[in-house]
Amino acid sequence: MRFRHPDGSTVHLAYCTNVHPAETLDGVLAQLRDHCEPVRRRLGRDRLGIGLWLARDAARALDTDPAALRGLRCELERRGLEVVTLNGFPYEGFGAEEVKYRVYKPDWADPERLEHTAALARVLTGLLPDDVTEGSISTLPLAWRTAYDDTRAETARTALRTLAERLDALEDLTGRSVRVALEPEPGCVVETTGDAIAPLTAVGHDRVGICVDTCHLATSFEDPDTALDDLARAGVPVVKSQLSAALHAAQPHLPEVREALAAFAEPRFLHQTRTATAAGLRGTDDLDEALAGDALPDANPWRSHFHVPLHAAPAAPLTSTLPVLTSALTRLVGGPHPLTRHLEVETYTWQALPPELRPRGRAQLADGIAAELTLARDLLTDLGLKELP
Question: Where are the beta strands (DSSP E) in the chain?
Answer without folding.
Answer: 2-4, 10-16, 48-53, 81-87, 134-139, 177-182, 208-213, 238-243, 245-249, 273-277, 280-284, 302-308, 318-320, 342-345, 386-387
